[in-house]
Amino acid sequence: MQFLIPVVILCVSLVDSQKVLYNNEIGFNNGFYYAFWKDSGSATFTLESGGRYAGNWTTSTNNWVGGKGWNPGNSWRTVNYSGYYGINEYANSYLSLYGWTTNPLIEYYVVESYGSYSPLNCPGGTDEGSFTSGGATYQVRKCRRTNAPSIIGTQSFDQYFSVRTPKKGFGQVSGSVNFADHVQYWASRGLPLGTHAHQIFATEGYQSSGFADITVS
């Protein structure tokens, strides 16, 4: 999948009430940063009260991602989430804490649930072991993107994936991500982060269909 939230930005807005987004947008809403990106099709992203958002997509959209969180992010935040993740096992989708850092340029994911494709299968990557956080086991993989879109244009950069095992599944979901645990484990494997850019709890879909209604805190 291609993960392009920051690359194509059509507008930035400050919104305080419910709003449905049909085009790529970033901004702040009820105290949270939000980002919505798609490369095609009819995916929509709804800004709800507080840290709540909803995403709705069909196969007319090749790739989309959206969520709420913080800008800048940090390395010690515990992120709580709850709501509905409406996909099936055949849908290519992630539900994850997602963000970027610069110096070094890193794209990272803490994947709480996913559909048909696990990022542990990313081609050309390296397995980096596993650790326990919050009573769950996370398997870690480092992948490499070459001449790919990033928050600072086309670059080559590493991706870090922590993938919850077993995943949360579908339907009603809730949980917490203690991001400090992931940062510390990545560092122990020689996978440093840099200066934080945005950090959101995101839903992503790739050549699939589904619905998500998620509250972040």
Automatic annotation (TrEMBL):
Pathway: Glycan degradation; xylan degradation. It comes from the Eukaryota. Its EC number is 3.2.1.8. GO terms for molecular function: endo-1,4-beta-xylanase activity. GO terms for biological process: xylan catabolic process. Residues 20-217 form the GH11 domain. Coiled coil: none annotated. Pfam families: Glyco_hydro_11 (PF00457). It catalyses: Endohydrolysis of (1->4)-beta-D-xylosidic linkages in xylans. The active site is at 107 (nucleophile), 204 (proton donor). It is an enzyme of class 3 (hydrolase). The keyword Hydrolase applies. Keywords: Carbohydrate metabolism, Glycosidase, Hydrolase, Polysaccharide degradation, Signal, Xylan degradation. Residues 1-17 form the signal peptide. PANTHER family: ENDO-1,4-BETA-XYLANASE A-RELATED (PTHR46828). Belongs to the glycosyl hydrolase 11 (cellulase G) family. This is endo-1,4-beta-xylanase.
